[in-house]
Structures are given as C-alpha cells and as structure tokens.
Design goal:
Largest sheet: 2 strands, parallel
Helix content: 55-70%
Radius of gyration: 28 Å
Order of helices and strands: EHHHHHEHHHH
Length: about 280
C-alpha cells in the first residue's frame, strides 16, 4: 500500500471523494480514514442474513450443523463482517489519503526557493489549484494549518511546534477510529463464551434425564438420553471455535491496517519536514 499508491497525473485534480466507498453510496467524504459505523453495520446484517439463507440450501452439511447450533454463531459472524467492512473502507481511505503525497508541484523544486510568510500564499494557491476540498486530506490540512499561521510565528522552531501539535491531533484521530473495532473484537469472543454457557446449560439439563434412568431400561434408551447431552457439549465447543476463529482473523487484519495508517502518518511527517521545516526562512516583510 505505502509503496504502490497511485501517482497523480499532471493536470488531474485530486478529490477525496474519488474512490471512497462511502461516497459511492451517497455519503459525504470527511478528513481522515474513519468510516461510518452505522452504514457498515447495516451491510453486515445483510451479509449475515445472506449466510443464513445460503446455509438453508445445504441442511446436511457440516458447516450448517456447526453454525446453526446457536444464535451466538451468527452474532459472531455479523460482528466479524462489520469489522471486515470497516477495515475494507479504511484501506480505501488510506489509499486515497496517500495520493496526496504524490501530487507534484505544490512546493517549487528549485534549490534556491525558500518558504516564508511571503511565499506561503503561493503554496496555498497551488494546493487550491490542484486539490478539491484540500482540508479533507490529512497532509494538506497539516500544511494548511502551518502555512496559514506562518505570518504570526516569530521563530522557525515555532513552526515545528505547530506541525507537531497537528501530528498529535492526527494520530489521536487515527487511534479514535479504531475504538469501534476494538469493542467489536472484544465482543466476538464474548459471543463465543455466551454460546459456551448455553451449551453447558443444555448439557447439564439433559444430563439430569440420564441420572433418572431406571434399572430396567435398555442400553439404547440410555443412549437416546445421552443425545441431548452430547448436543449441548457440541454447541459449547462449536460456538467457541467460530468466535475464536473470527477474532483471530479480524485481529490480524486490524493490526495490519493500523500499521499502514502509522506508516502513512510517518510519511506525512517526513513530507512536512522536507518541504516546510527544512525550507523555512522567516524574514521581515
């Protein structure tokens, strides 16, 4: 992702809405990579219902027996779908945000060019000319905040303070975007534990019938009484298995996507240092 972001061709205007899955369904774009939780919750419910419907066509399959033992399995699947959809949208938004790093000509390439309160408006004008809604991009928003305040800054190191402050704000925003995912990742194994309790309850309740076997009953009768006990134990293990597998997959993908966002923020920091801090010269105008 970080090494293969699409370059922006000459003359092409960059737009945060282009390629955003949420904008494709009529929602507005926003700064950063935080997706809409409610929208993708609805889509996850649809996908979970589709899984349930698909299983109805294979009533004798092993996976049908496993998943239909308890409602908690479908709850785990629904939460997993919700997480996966959020991660998919985040990946798309990271890709869009990374395109800002590929926009050429924002800062002049001349080695003798310096950034100052007099040349800052020129940079802002170039951003407006090349980007639609530039404040929706993490990179351009940070550049905009720094250059808009350049005339009120007394020393070069103060620019670094402004950039660091915005970097902390962006990092906090990224971290907040994973709050829902963390809650969902915690909830999925809880669904498995609930299924375990349900299965144990069924097994214990059925075992009472086994204890009530009279001395004259046949072995086949005892076997029939043991059926519900085994079914309850199977529910216990199957619900735990489904929840744990879903948790592992979602957790690994979440860690990967989060690392991509951290890499992106590091690249934004390097871009600002190279083009703003390293080329800054505060002079009197």
């Amino acid at each position: 992702m970080s090494a293969h972001a699409d370059p922006v061709t000459a003359g092409e205007r960059l737009d945060a809405a282009a390629g955003d899955p949420e904008c494709m369904v009529g929602m507005s774009s926003s700064r950063g990579t935080r997706p809409s939780g409610a929208l993708w919750c609805g889509v996850a419910l649809v996908l979970t219902s589709a899984v349930w419907l698909l299983l109805s066509f294979f009533p004798e399959s092993r996976i049908n027996h496993v998943l239909t033992r308890s409602w908690t399995n479908f709850a785990s699947i629904g939460f997993a779908f919700w997480c996966l959809l959020i991660l998919f949208v985040k990946l798309a938004k990271i890709r869009i945000q990374r395109r800002a790093l590929k926009v050429a000509g924002i800062f002049p390439a001349r080695s003798d060019w310096v950034l100052s309160p007099g040349t800052a408006p020129e940079v802002l004008q170039r951003i407006r000319a090349k980007v639609d809604r530039p404040r929706e991009f993490t990179l351009f928003n940070r550049v905009w905040v720094a250059l808009s305040n350049l005339g009120n800054i007394g020393e070069a190191r103060d620019v670094g303070v402004v950039l660091d402050s915005q970097a902390h704000s962006d990092s906090a925003q990224v971290d907040a975007g994973y709050t829902a995912l963390r809650v969902l990742i915690w909830t999925i194994p809880v669904m498995g534990f609930i299924g375990t309790v349900i299965g144990l309850g069924q097994a214990i309740g059925a075992f009472q019938n086994v204890l009530d076997v009279s001395a004259g009953e046949s072995a086949s009768s005892v076997k029939d009484r043991l059926g519900p006990v085994m079914s309850g134990l199977a529910t216990k293990f199957d619900t735990t298995l489904v929840a744990l597998l879903a948790t592992v997959v979602v957790q690994l993908l979440t860690t990967w996507v989060y690392s991509l966002e951290e890499d992106f923020l590091a690249d934004v920091q390097a871009y600002c240092h190279e083009n703003i801090v390293a080329r800054l010269k505060l002079v009197d105008w």
